[in-house]
Amino acid sequence: MSALKEKQRDDSHSSIPDEWFRPKEKNIDEAESVVRPSLSYWEDAWRRLRQNKLAMAGFVFLILLAVMAVIGPWISPYTVSEASLADQNQPPSLNHWFGTDELGRDVFTRTWYGARISLFVGLMAALIDFFIGVVYGGISGYKGGRTDNVLMRIIEILYGLPYLLVVILLLVVMGPSLLTIIIALTVTGWVGMARIVRGQVLQLKHNEFVMASQSFGAKTKRIIRKNLLPNTMGPIIVQMTLTVPTAIFAEAFLSFLGLGIQSPYASWGVMANDALGVILSGDWWRLFFPAFFISATMFAFNVLGDGLQDALDPRLRR
Amino acid sequence: MLNKILEIHNLHISFKTFGGEVQAVRGVNLDLYEGETLAIVGESGCGKSVTASSIMRLIPTPPGQIKEGSILFKGQDMTKCSDKKMRGIRGVDISMIFQDPMTALNPTLTVGDQLTEGLRQHRRVTKKEADAQAVDMLNLVGIPNPDERMKQYPYQFSGGMRQRIVIAMALICEPELLIADEPTTALDVTIQAQILQLFNKIQKETGVSIILITHDLGVVAKVADRIAVMYAGKVVETGTRREIFYEPQHPYTKGLLHSVPRLDQKGEKLIPIDGTPPDLFSPPEGCPFTARCPAAMEVCSRIYPYSTVRSETHEVDCWLQDERAEKYSATIQS
Amino acid sequence: MVTYILKRLVYMIVTVFIIATLTFFLMNLIPGSPFNEERTTNAAVQQNLEEHYHLNEPLAVQYILYLKSIITLDFGPSIKQPTETVNSLLGRGFPISAELGIWTVLIALVSGVALGVFAALKHNHLIDYMAMTIAVLGISIPNFVLATMLIQQLAVQLEWLPAATWSSPAHMVLPVLALATGPMAIIARLTRSSMLETLTQDYIKTARAKGLSPYKVVVKHALKNALMPVVTIMGTLLAGILTGTFVIEKIFAIPGMGKYFVEGINQRDYPVIMGTTVFYSAFLVFMLFLVDIAYGFLDPRIKLHKEGGSS
Description:
The complex is a heterotrimer of chains A (318), B (334) and C (311). Helix content of chain A is 68%, strand content 0%. Chain A is built from 13 helices and no strands. Chain A starts with 10 loop residues before the first helix and ends in a 6-residue tail after the last helix. Chain B has a single domain, classed as Rossmann fold, CATH 3.40.50. Chain B has twelve helices and twelve strands. In chain B, the strands form two sheets. Chain B has an eight-stranded mixed sheet, sandwiched between helices. In chain B, strand 4 and strand 5 form a beta hairpin. In chain B, helix 4 crosses helix 5 and helix 5 packs across helix 7. Chain B is globular, with a radius of gyration of 21 Å. Chain C has a domain of 168 residues: MetI-like (MetI-like fold). The longest helix of chain C has 36 residues. The chains are: A mainly alpha (318), B alpha/beta (334), C mainly alpha (311). Chains in contact: A-B, A-C, B-C. At the A-C interface, helix 6, helix 7, helix 11, helix 12 and helix 13 of A face helix 1, helix 5, helix 6, helix 10 and helix 11 of C. Chain A: It holds the Pfam family BPD_transp_1. Chain A: InterPro entries: BP-dependent_transpt_permease, MetI-like, MetI-like_sf, OppC_N. Chain A: Keywords: Cell membrane, Membrane, Transmembrane, Transmembrane helix, Transport.
């Protein structure tokens, strides 16, 4: 066959030393050693998350934000509600890095105070959603059958309720405060998490590799730790990461309706809402700082969530 | 001898991934004659599907890229064709069938629509003519009530029926070459046999040349005229069906044959091939099968063997064919 | 398909019923009842309230009569404005809010889908990264922040467009832009990822192997399948747009339904809050119902199946 010509024997092949043709000792280990070193699920996920620069930037931003939320109000000489008639509506300066508002309160201090509120609301909402969702979705998926059917019908109806309208209604009744905002956000907020947990449990319950582990006589605990947890946690972690910005947005949104954290405490939403009346007069800093931090925080959580989604997806493992 | 319809020459294909460049196909040479069925056999990941997809330039680019070599279809180099010209060849001169009939049909379009759209794209036919031709095709592949079935959606068909539709779809423009990528793997055994019979029937009636990609030697035994065995991106042995099944030369081919049950050799033990194929991120320098080869020699891990021509149709890349290796094996046996 | 529609219809009615019930009992939980005399401003209002809510009857009877008034679309009087009823506020506000909403949905859908498809086709190119970074920004910037930024830049600084009210097409540009950016970004991202997934499907390979033009492969074979997830989240997006109108109408001083709702909340005008909430919910649930039907038509398994079935 002409196509194969250049593959055929040539002089270089003739000059190969004869002893190279001695049969080799068969070494099974060598055959197996070709496989690449295996990384654990989390190591692999972390490696891939680190490669995602945008997600890592978001992660670093959030850490810095958390640090500033703790020490920010503390390093500032002003308190969150300290009004000073002499310092009304000051633009950013050495004394007031982020300027002051119409009561002469320091925007820098209030911004970090607002970070505390926003992060707290966001994290609490994510945690509570997580606990309710895991219990509800876990039971639904694990029990299956009629229990699952009933629990899922309930979810389907709750899912149809307009989220923010229910939150507004609850806050009108309970009156706005940090506690009631978190309650209102989680009353129907856990539904999405429950759905995801149920889906994961269902999918894994019947999965072949779980059956395989069982047939090898693996203990239930080991099955859960080695097989169920890593594969289930991915989507749950992603959902939690994406709940936080939703909650932060909701809190800020409620502030615009007069249902946010009440004065003298500050949240970013309240600060932005208060600043609405003065943007026409050019006091840009009043709006800029809270608006910037709401957006940046939501952006950071969103890109981190996306990054986690890619990093934790077992289908993308390579 | 018959005319060559397809000549693949020193084909190299790589895929860029996050982990580096995977050299999926590393210097493949293949010929296909008019009216024959060539089976490409090998484990998953050996490059057989990539080779087949590249004939119609259907590998996703990027990340995939034809690095080197040529693919001559009736003398025309597919690697140098313009996209537009390529579209005129796809479905008309060359057709392709994919592995899973459950996913090869678009769930939101009717079967009739999917059958006729190729025809209407490439030939000047009215809808009525196209429909009539599609009904003929469905008859040919053995679908009952074709008129009614044309209006239905894929989910209303069983797996075997869908694969028949996929085959009808591939044949509707009367191609000269049909590439079937694992066409029976996703099907039940009884359905598999029916589909293979269908392939034989179609070839008899239309004279189409077929490239059949499979890892299943049972399938090969039923339909292939010639067989190419691929391992780690290279064709390690080619021969007629008889040559490969009765005089296999490459240890990998022998290993493949030993690992499937055969009815004609009673009492033979099934022997699996130990180990796994090499990592194609950094393929070994010598013969890629060395690490798993029961007869490996020093030279195997250093230099890739040259091709030994055993007959007009039988070629093998293996150092055991070298007279120096025979010398040693003779001393061992004595 | 008919069973499918009926099933969705039942869900719709149940959901509206639950919201109405929830609203009624939550309002009655407010210490000292929301309708007692201290909260109302004058006798005429008190008269209206008693007439509508039958405050002298026991709670159960009140509840039945309340449900009846909702079925007849009578949402009761306002506490703060004796001459107004919730219905009269809705009648004035709804057409304006609807106009804002329709434009928002249209622009978000068209530009979101276009952006998503474009990014998917240019996967991993610079254009893809840019489009998706813009999309994440669009999701991350809350609509009220975007609204104020737009007012400050385009209305106050550059004076290109009017900053407030709702009297000409030019007035509509900024509010629609502020409201549509978020949903558009969500649609773009979803379209992209679902398009990318669809493009790896075997039936796309098959379509390409038939020699169809890239345009036909994308529009005929990929897009319809890729848009299914977009249709599924339209319900959530519509809810977001609807609640978004509250804030946007407040910021742009648009006399829509959202503005009355927010005023109602600020003044604790409970009948207005109750009536508007129920109306909003019913409207939204109806929209979800329409979305479900649209989905049914896209998916042949639902369209043709006699028993219906959701999967």
